[in-house]
Amino acid sequence: MNDSFMLRRILSLYQIRYAASSILSSSKEIYLRVKKLLDSKEYQKVLNLFDQQSHLCKDIEINMALRACINLNDYQRGINIQEKLSQDSLNNSYIQTSLIRLYSKLFISKLNHH
């Protein structure tokens, strides 16, 4: 093998590893930011951050976004999040629990308006 090929291959592997570690770092950073906002009851900011970074969010951040929807009584937004979930996320017991809470509060609010 020539040196040029080896150098390109090493650079390519480095870029792949750097991109992967960058994504992991971003994912952890998103989690920490969402958690801090949720803990400080800044629910609208949780949803704004979720909207901006949803492509990087894991189930735990999705669950926190659903909890923010519940606390804001923003049922439609919670339903919109649910509609975009993968089957794996829908099978997550924490997300299922949050969806049950979301729909329960929605049902109760509709009963109170009639």
Observed structural traits:
114 residues; Serine Threonine Protein Phosphatase 5, Tetratricopeptide repeat; elongated
Describe this structure in words.
The protein is mainly alpha-helical. The protein has a single domain, classed as Serine Threonine Protein Phosphatase 5, Tetratricopeptide repeat (Alpha Horseshoe). The chain is built from 6 helices and no strands. The protein is elongated and about 75 Å long.
- Globally, the shape reads elongated
Report the major sheet: none
CATH topology group? Serine Threonine Protein Phosphatase 5, Tetratricopeptide repeat
CATH architecture: Alpha Horseshoe
Note poorly predicted spans. 20-24
Beta-strand content bin: under 5%
**Secondary-structure content class:** mainly alpha
Please give the alpha-carbon distance between the first and last residues. Answer: 77 Å
Helix content: over 70%
Radius of gyration: 19 Å
Provide mean pLDDT, rounded: 87
In short:
The chain is 83% helix and 0% strand.
Topology:
Elements: H1 3-39, H2 43-53, H3 59-72, H4 75-83, H5 87-90, H6 93-112
Helix pairs in contact: 1-2, 1-3, 2-3, 3-4, 3-6, 4-6
